[in-house]
Amino acid sequence: MKNVIGARCTVCGNLIEATPNITVCPRCGGIMDIEYDYDYIRAKLTPYDLMDCDDFSMWRYKAFLPVEGKSTLPKLRVGWSPFYKAGRLGEVLGLKNLYIKDDGINPTSSLKDRASAMAVVKAEEAGKSIIACSSTGNAASSLAGNAAAAGLKTYIFVPERAPKGKVAQLMMFGATVISVQGSYEDTFRLSAEAIDRWGWYNRNAAINPYLMEGKKTVALEIAEQLHFQMPDYVAISVGDGCTIAGVWKGFKDLYAAGFINKLPRLIAVQASGCCPINTAAAAHTTEWTPQPENTLADSIAVGVPRNPLKAIRAIEESNGIPVNVSDEEILAAMRLLGRTSGVFAEPAGATGTAGVKKAVEMGLIDKDASVVTVVTGNGLKDVNNAIKAAGEPISIPGEMDRLLEAFEKKGDPHR
Ligand SMILES: *Cc1c(COP(=O)(O)O)cnc(C)c1O
User: What pTM was computed for the model?
Assistant: First the structure.
């Protein structure tokens, strides 16, 4: 990998060779970060080259990614998700320049596919045929899907509370699924022990620094889809903190390679019932405290985050805004995205948008500001909460009289 200098520890600064199966710092146990040679990247790729690139997936940014020249890239099409100017949603929120990046449109319907695709490449480079992870749900289903497409086996640990849609995906993709009767923390601990014992490739969030490199491609796409004219803000929901850290890394990479001349501010959105990262970020400290996992947004119900340092630094460095939203605000944002934009988000997928709404209401962002809200996961993943947000349909026998009656009761103006 001529574009990669090595992996540097985010805690002690130790620089090591970026071999395929590195995890945490061998010296202090800190989380590693992949470091690039930006002069090399600049010579290899320019914004003009991208205009001619016919690879409409995350791999169009190979020059910015830690993949060996000879590695076979996955066949599932991950990335290059839709990017919309959200006029009607913007009107409702009072923003003139609002955009939606819909990452629910990925092969397994979440942004996690960007990390899992990278994990599959790295596992193959490392000569491993089994990959394992623990996850609140989406990392699991995306790993299972991306591994299935590459012919690799998976062992997946999920907490018992994982929504049915996500577990159904896991089973469909042929994963061996261990449903742990306990919290996400218990699940993570058991998976770590099993990975150690059997030597599987480790796709656990944060621990494996390559995953974030996959996730950063969402930022590269946002930049390119805006013709490298950067927005003022990018809003993203936060659980473990890998996604927001990845988004920030992506923008910083583009800046360092001279693709963009401005960095956006991050709007970090957590659920008020579980917001350890935002609590620390708001106090401008990296000292965080565990919290109960008290939100219906299962993908971000992370009381003990795995990547707090990178996430808090990303918020701090970007002069970001931490915003917490209630479950009711999340459900309302799901309805809003659906009704104004035809975008169906799972609770954590709509949390970024709920945060934008709240930040405008609190006067934290200007109405003229340009804002990108990232929808991180699709609503079909969690049908129970979708019904909770949107309500039940009109249920009647198949007779016109009953229909008239029902419309009368509802006062429907469209009939
Ligand atoms: C994982 C996930 C997040 C948060 O990502 P972290 O890296 O855990 O912060 C947000 N939304 C969805 C849908 C997710 O699956």
Answer: 0.96
